[in-house]
Structures are given as C-alpha cells and as structure tokens.
Amino acid sequence: MKPRSDASFKPINMDRDQRVVINTLAENWTPSPASGVWRIPLEREAEESGQVTSIVRYEPETSFSAHFHPNGEEIFVVSGVFEDEFGRYPAGTYLRNPAQTQHAPASQNGCVLYVKLNMFAEGDLETLRIDTHNARWQPGHNEGQSVLPLHGFGADRTLLVQWKAGASLPKQVYEGGLEIYILAGSFQDEWGTYRQGFWLRTPPGSYHHPFTQEGCLLLIKTGHF
Description:
Layout: E1 20-23, E2 30-31, E3 37-44, E4 52-58, E5 62-63, E6 67-68, E7 73-84, E8 87-90, E9 93-97, E10 102-103, E11 106-107, E12 111-117, E13 128-131, E14 138-139, E15 145-153, E16 156-163, E17 172-174, E18 178-189, E19 192-195, E20 198-202, E21 206-208, E22 216-222
Antiparallel strand pairs: 1-20, 2-3, 3-4, 4-12, 5-11, 6-10, 7-8, 7-9, 7-12, 9-13, 14-15, 15-16, 16-22, 17-21, 18-19, 18-20, 18-22
C-alpha cells in the first residue's frame, strides 16, 4: 500500500519554538512508499522530502530501493536487525550516512528504527557505525548518570544517557534545544512523566529539573537547533 500524494500536506511539528511530547507507542503507523515499511512522523517538513524525524518499522523481508538523502541520515536501531548493502545492524546500533551518500535499506527479520533525515550541518561528513553494546561508557557529570557520546559537530551533540533508579539532576538549561527519545524506563520533571517510547522536543533556552524513580535509558540530542 502506497500513500497518496496530497497537495494539501501541512508540515508536522516544524515550529521548533514549540514544546512537543509524543507517546509513540500510542500513535498509529502510516504507510511509506515501500510496501511493508511503516512510519510514525514526529516532525516532517514536506510529504516525502525535507527534514524529517520519525519512528520507522520494517516488517520481515521488506526493503527500500536504493536512494540517497540530500543532507544526510541519522539512525538508531531500536529493535530487530536493520540491513543495507554495507552490513547488518542489530538493536543498539547508531548510524550516520552523510549528505549525498546512497544505500538500499532492508530487514530480513524486521526492525524498528529512530530516524532523522536531512539535518546534517554543512561540513559534517562523518560516516558512523557504532555498536553501543560494545562501546565504552563514561561517568556523567552527576551521580547515578552514565554517558555514551555518539556524535558531535559544532554545537550539535548526540549521546546515550543512562540514569540509575533514584537519580536526580540539578536544573538543566538547553541553549540549543533538546530532543529525547526514551529507549527504556521512565523519568519525570516539573512538566510531566515520560515512559519508554516517548519523544520530547523542547525549544532553545528551555530548562527542566529531571529525575527518575526506576531508572532510564535515553537517546539525546542537544544544540542542533
């Protein structure tokens, strides 16, 4: 099933001065141009182009035809095994494909991905394939926190953060904005409670005082706005 072209398409959550919170586990999947590949749009500039953040699900034995992304692709494999002609990437793999690179993605057994398209800063040409299960974590700045840096370019930072149960951070201010996808567990702040599968985006200059009762694993981006 292919989505219909809709001339009346309206951008989704592209005002980055607005705070957005989405429970992706409660959203409906929408079809992509490839049969058996489904998406949950979190932010989308245009119908099938421009800047995009989405959760993508490949059914077993599905694929996309070879294609390139004009301004790069960033992927975190949430579950299953993702593949292309360059390798197989199990859950926990972080990938970056720079601008103008091409691949033919697929999944033999099915997978779920967190994907960002066409958001690379000018000059960011690094290709990355990181197995986070075999990477070296670092102590965080606060007690009960561990950090795994994944990528940095200019002010843009992508990292995994793990908090132990009961961890609490002092007030955090994000001059370049904040984006969080919760991979496991849950955390709270003065604005609410966020569980596995939640996606949050807060604007530049935003702040919060986060804490966690059960512990959590977060995929975080800062400084990219």
